[in-house]
Amino acid sequence: MTPVREAYGPSERHVGDWWVPDRPDERLPTVVLVHGGFWRAEWDLSLEDDVAADLAGRGFLVWNVDYRPSSEPWPATLTDVAAAHDHLRTRARVDLTRTAVVGHSAGGHLALWLASRTRLPDGAPGAAPRVPHPALAVAQAPV
Description:
The protein is an alpha/beta fold. The chain is about 20% helix and about 25% strand.
């Protein structure tokens, strides 16, 4: 299975890979993967490629996303993953009622933050999501 890279914003790190299962055209449960790597520039979405391939092989549509590292000014990392999550609405095959966010390490922190966006105060970075609240959030060894 070969992922399809797609931009969700203007930065070179504003990209994600769509892992599409070999299933008929139907709306699919979707998993957003957020990689770890201590928010550092040397780590990217490729850390989650094996997980993405496994999930897609099990019938999930997977959006494995990258984001700017902590060397960028606050709140870049937060607004990046918010924009990546909101990008789900651009895909017809995404079933927005059946989404999950999964992250490892720093990505676990970001996955939990994504799942709490509906509780952010007006004007906070990432507030007012454009997609429904995820049905599930999983943090693997969050920091």
